[in-house]
Design brief:
The complex is a heterodimer of chains A (454) and B (492).
Chain A: E1 5-7, H1 14-25, E2 40-47, E3 55-63, E4 66-71, E5 81-84, E6 89-92, E7 94-99, H2 137-142, E8 146-151, E9 167-175, H3 181-184, E10 185-195, E11 202-205, E12 210-213, H4 216-245, H5 256-265, E13 271-275, H6 278-291, E14 295-299, H7 307-312, E15 317-319, H8 335-345, E16 350-352, H9 363-372, H10 377-383, H11 386-391, E17 409-412, E18 423-428, E19 431-433, H12 438-447
Parallel strand pairs in A: 1-5, 2-5, 2-6, 7-8, 10-13, 13-14, 14-15, 15-16
Antiparallel strand pairs in A: 2-3, 3-4, 6-17, 8-9, 9-10, 11-12, 17-18, 18-19
Helix pairs in contact in A: 4-5, 8-9, 9-10
Chain B: E1 43-51, E2 57-66, E3 69-74, E4 84-87, E5 92-95, E6 97-102, H1 131-137, E7 141-146, E8 154-162, E9 180-184, H2 207-236, H3 252-258, E10 263-268, H4 271-284, E11 290-293, H5 301-307, E12 310-313, H6 331-337, E13 342-344, H7 355-364, H8 370-375, H9 379-384, E14 402-405, E15 416-421, E16 424-428, H10 429-454, H11 479-489
Parallel strand pairs in B: 1-4, 1-5, 6-7, 9-10, 10-11, 11-12, 12-13
Antiparallel strand pairs in B: 1-2, 2-3, 5-14, 7-8, 8-9, 14-15, 15-16
Helix pairs in contact in B: 2-3, 2-4
Classes of the chains: A alpha/beta (454), B alpha/beta (492).
Chain lengths: 454, 492
Amino acid sequence: MKRKKVIQLRSPLYFFNFLCLACLSCAPAARAQTQASSVYAITHAKIFTLAGSPIEDGTLLIRDGKIAAVGAAVEVPAGAQVIDAKGLQVYPGLFDAVTQMGLSEIGAVGATVDTTEAGNYNPDVVAATAISPSSEHIPVTRASGITEVLVVPASGGFDSGGSRGTLGGQASALHLVGWTIDEMVIKKSAAMVLNWPQIQTETFDFATFSRKEKPYTEAKQEYDKQVNELTDWLDRARHYAQAMEKGSVSKYDRDLKLEALALVVRGELPVLVFANRARDIRNAVEFCDKQKLKMILAGGQEAYKVKDLLRSKDVPVILRPMLSLPPDEDDPYDRELTQPAELAAAGVKFAIASFDNSFARRLGQNAANAVAHGLSYDEALRAVTINPAQILGLGSQIGTLEQGKIANLMVTSGDPLELTSEVRYLFIKGQLTSTENKHHRLYEKYLNRPKAAN
Amino acid sequence: MRIFTMNQSCARIAFLSLLPFVCGLCFAPSVPAATPPDAPPVFLIQNATVMTVSHGTIEHGSILIKDGKIAEVGQSIKAPAGAQVIDASAQFVIPGIIDCHSHIAAEAINEGSVSVSSMVNMEEVLNPDDLDIYRDLAGGVTSANILHGSANSIGGQTLVIKLRWGQPASKLPFEGAMPGIKFALGENPKRSNFSLPGQSRRYPATRMGVEETIRTAFSEARDYKKTRDDYNRRVAAGEKNLVPPRRDLKLEPLVEVLEGKRYVHSHCYREDEILMLLRVAKEFGFKVRTLQHVLEGYKVADELAAAGVGASTFSDWWAYKVEAYDAIPYNAAVMTRRGVIVSINSDDAEEATHLNQEAAKSMKYGGLSHDEALKLVTLNPAIQLGIDKRVGSIDVGKDADLAIYNHDPLSAYAVVQKTLIDGRVYFDREKDVSNRAEIEKEKKALTDKLKKAEKKPEERKPDEKKPEEKPKPPAPSPTPTARAGAVLGGAR
């Protein structure tokens, strides 16, 4: 028999053991995020590939960061590090498709927040530029099995005085591991953020600290003005794109904003349109249709009201958490929870996202709650794995466990959407990745505090 | 919920002064509360998995309810004549969830203008029509500790309510429950994360000042108590013509704290401020009943256990402000293991709809048992609020406050089917769902009528406002503004 390194963990304090074993097998990398690249074989696992039925007692082989083979009869090569996953399950890592990971550390402390640039039109700013790879949120988030995120700018944090801008910049897709941003990036520019203008008849005035009502006609005028501005930006981008094609841009000053938008008007970069109310969604869909933009709806609190339109225009949705109260008092109490099932039934493609950093680890919980309210389990799993990947044009690289895909996956004690399941092993880019984080460290430290003398 | 960035209708994130832009600004017409359920008949819940919390789980168990109380719990109970039988096959019954930190059912949250606002009382602003009562009922919550906000070192008076949706405000208070008072330490009372336009900083601005504010208030309260006690003693001794001391509405509740007649529920985060409050309490001879949030409680768990103080915390919130940066999801488990009575609370109407799930997380983070986890939202908050003789477990003689789920309640797949308070069904999912078509019809009829009326729009004149009518920032006001007030004063 060929020599195989076998790692077996059963202890509930798996992460501490995990660290110890990591130390033994790869001493210099003890505190590192990942171990050196090698060949891994996960054996005897129940494998949920999400590309066909689950494989009982299956083997998944990882080589050079990719899934080399997956199936019931995969031979384990010599020298492979073997993880005997008997009684465990394997799933693709989860993909949280709207976060501010690395752009925002402590929400209330402006100095730690880089989510939102000043001004209304910033198509040329890119999230990946300002992502801190050392953010404590990253290891905390991946400990719950999230292996990829979309980092979305222009969310209106403490750095922006609440305003979010219209064209907010480019969202970046990341692996949740890496020493530098470059190592983390899956796609630096994955979508252009468009905060859809709203017809706001009520605003809050800080000078008098009171609500201000605005007549509808006035609010509508402001809305039209914003849409006209946006249209104008896109028109100019179209002209600029033509000039670029003809190689005549050099005649003009280079315009970085229009250069960024050229990708959008050519349909090469999707627009991630944030809208929640049915009217706003409808307006946005019609606008993008007319402008021939590739639209992804984000938020979609009332997407169910326009599901047929979304379906007919093939607009996918990245839903905000369903653990939310209904928008209106006369909505059923579970309005948000039942929406995913309704969208699935209508044939609308959707993903579920956390729209947050601290609560990214509630991603699975949200998906499970959608199942509790009528969504099929399979659809729920897909909504946090392959669907977001496909929506963002990464479906051929990640999202399912298929040969040739990047090995972003988790070995769990059970259903990854359930509250009590544990991630036993995590692979990102084929690297066995530590789930240790700030929370474990503090837990361990204070668990071991000697009894206080009182 | 707490997704405070792109979320258009998130709940109050206390420290985030930007939120008035996105939350609570839409006036929805207040939906009249449903009529309260009829007088409780005799109920028999049968064939259920009964999680008593106090004495284990009974498979295929029954609960007999009479006069709103639990009359019998066991394996097989015969239905008495005239009993209404609830067949709960494949369902799970737990004691009604008790939320130890809630801001529902209130017209206002923060009297933020002063650093000691003990003169105000949440009972005066109870709003029985707040839909969040119903939404939380639908999450299995039966009792809630309605707290003042955290804008002040010493905040307003608080009370425990039962979620008797459909009853008037006078019927909400939990009969006989000890009243409370809210304290707050750290960033919110020192107002670190926001400023009010045109207003200079309010004292205190540091944690040192927070301590000083509390000590000063209790020094005054002690003097006031002495004056009152002296007066009473002299009256009792038969002295005539005495002038009674003038009532001080600010100090009276603090005297009640000194006399053990009012519980202190203190918002806190950091270990140093937690120990500060325990020292001050010792100095003045009062007890702190619960520490709220107490996200660094795990660092000083032995001290909490020794002081006999309860800890009511979040499941997995962190990093929304600096004092929450060391928050860990293991907090509840570590404190439990060191002998502290711990509960998991919501501080938020949405979070309250799934406190069962939040409790479940302590099994993953820190390895609490199923029973220990369930206690975090049932028996433990009951003990903390001094109502455990009445509620918190499924025991004979206790109030029939129950939540019935279709799965193990410590699962994300569990959905509440029925919620009972005092043996009456206040939430019934089946009924709720079957009523929806009717409500939709009614809504359509009303909107059609409105549309018809709007065809002849009258020109609207802008309301002329007199200067004195200008709304003041955090003063008590109708709900939506109150939410903005909560935001600024800091519910968290």
